[in-house]
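W.,

You were right to be curious about this one. When I first looked at the sequence I had no strong expectations either way, so I just let the prediction run and decided to look at it fresh. Below is the sequence, 257 residues in total, followed by the output.
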Amino acid sequence: MTRILITGFEAFPGAPYNPTPKLVERLLRLRRPALADVTRIGHIFRVTYQAVDRQLPELIAKHHPDALLMFGLATRTPFLRVETRARNTVTQIFPDASHAPVRSRTLELGAESTRRFGPHIAQLLRAARGTGIDARLSLSAGFYLCNYLSWRAIEATRRHDSDPKGRASAKWEPVFGENHAAKKGGPRLAAFIHVPLVPRDAAHHRKQGAVTFEQMVDAGEAVMMRMVGTVRQIHYSTNRSLALEVQDAPKHSVSIF
């Protein structure tokens, strides 16, 4: 059974309407034969650093997702952005929904300047473009909650790599907040997709040629299916390698006197 955690964000200061909760809901409701053995878990984050620190590790510990697909809103971008990396920085200008103080522009002192999602991102881009939507790779997830969630998600995938058997790992150390929930091996894959602002409903005006919500759903479905396929390939390769290890293991004979 493959498990995928799909997340969005609530509305936030400067964006009273965020289409990602509605998008997540649609992806959870999809009925496809290829999804028969896929468990989809949805979650909408409040736009606070503390919410990410507390809820992301709890969701991973509870559901053990194989993949994490995250959506966020980019109000000034008219196309779909497939993020390639997260940066070790955070804005001190725009507060989160709780107005939490940000004392440093660096997320983690001594850590690398960027963290990359991985080579599977190119496959997700092709999947999105295959639906006809305008989708492009992005080198910056911004300086706000989307970048912060991306940073934490990539960190979670690294914990899986460091402990492929899913044993209990070190405690999650938040940048913001006071949560210390222990977390087991994280997801194998993570991806963050920035979506453009679309009309709330048909009554609202839409610019000619702009991305529609239904196009966004089609692209989201394609990206989700590609992630599921990649996870299945990883599972197959891992199981095959384990089987070969067992097959090649030396057999010891026992003599009874």
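Here's what jumped out at me. The longest strand covers residues 2-9. And, maybe more interesting for your project: The chain has one domain: 2-248.

Coffee later to discuss?

I.
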